[in-house]
């Protein structure tokens, strides 16, 4: 039997799924200059880049195959969509890449 306590509910474009792990990535945009024969280059901090989420999601339940098809169609749509994150609430996101295992 699956322990549902380890999963948190979330959704993207209204299609529900479960999350076991979510990771947020934040970084600065850095411009590095290198000069011939110089001992040091120049580094310019150009500010904070857009953050990104990486999530491990699962489709649980009798309608998992239908939700998989709906979620794949939602991922294929162009432009931002609402992600209801389990701990951060509703965020407008753009999907960059999706990997799925079966």
Task: Explain what this protein looks like in three dimensions.
- This protein is mainly beta and 102 residues long.
- It has one helix and seven strands.
- It has a five-stranded antiparallel sheet. Strands 3-4 form a two-stranded antiparallel ribbon.
- A hairpin with an 8-residue loop joins strand 3 and strand 4.
Descriptive labels:
elongated, mainly beta, 102 residues, two-stranded antiparallel sheet
Radius of gyration: 19 Å
Described by its quaternary structure, the protein is single chain
What's the number of extended β-strand segments?
A: 7
Helical residues, percent: 10-25%
Q: How would a crystallographer describe the biggest sheet?
A: 5 strands, antiparallel
C-alpha geometry: elongated
How far the N terminus sits from the C terminus, by CA atoms, comes to 18 Å
Mean pLDDT reading: 90
In what range is the share of β-strand residues?
over 45%
Q: Structural class, from helix and strand content?
A: mainly beta
Low-confidence region ranges:
none
How many DSSP H or I helices? 1
Q: Give the strand order, joined by hyphens, for the main sheet.
A: 5-2-1-6-7
Order of helices and strands: EEEEEHEE
